[in-house]
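Protocol step 4 of 5: obtain the predicted structure for the target chain.
Materials: sequence only (see below). No template structures provided, no constraints applied. The aim of this step is simply to have a reference model before the mutagenesis design in step 5. Sequence pasted as it appears in the construct record:
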Amino acid sequence: MPKKKYKTSIVGAGKVGSVIAALLHEKGFPIVSVVDINLRAATQLARKVKCKQVSDSFSGIHKNTDLLFITTPDDVIATAAEGIAAESRLKFKNLTAIHTSGVHTSAVLLSLKKKGSTTLSFHPVQSFPKDISLTELKKSIKGIYFGVEGNEKSRILASHLVSLLGGKTIFLDKKDKPLYHLACVFASNYIVTILDVVSVISGKLKLKQSWAKVFLPLIITALENALTTTPRQALTGPIERGDFETVKTHIKELKKYIPQTTGLYSALAIETAKLAFSKGSITREQFKEINKLLEKT
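Step 4 output (structure tokens):
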């Protein structure tokens, strides 16, 4: 891959756009324009990466841009691409347009592709909380994987960029992007949701200690066991033991204290029963029994 320092523009000055801009700037890429409907956010990022061209409209994208990152919310990527494609000043045939959505493919950049631009999707397999600092974001992106989807030419460039960002590449087919993103959501968002339930239940206990400190060893051990062996081998607990009276007690307590979580518990318990049955920890009869119990909740 040539050591070209691409003139880079960022559309969307949120966490993802900011960390990509900052890391590429550190690697010597000139950030030639930053665009965001929130001009203040665009200006703040531009200052950090020594960019002189800032705007709240697509007309502010530098005309000599080689590399364009669209790091907007997923639902507006296609609209943004259409707006950018209408900017006749841009040298589209020299432009590579990249979006960072996990669920969308490069097809949402079709309006730019029709103009002659190279297009690809480039998604970091990482979580970017709003309150985290840019310094911490840069640390968190080191060593992670990026899900890349695009043609052969774009994949070569993507691999180069991922390497510069300190990451590793996995290549995805268009048809697999939604499934890939589903795995990301379960690996991150829904784990956080489950931990929130733990914190709510802990609040009912009026613990003197932080719930995080109390349950951290259990959480870490469960994750480590699942990751170093298999989730099936790592499974423990009342359903895995066939202790369905405990499950009945859980449901009773949930209905009493946090009834809104009963549905989540039942859904997770059914999947846990499937795992326990596939492991051979419970019999078919026990599997049917627990499903019958959970269907009543």
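Step 4 remarks: The chain has two domains: 8-175, 189-295. The longest helix spans residues 211-228.
Proceed to step 5.
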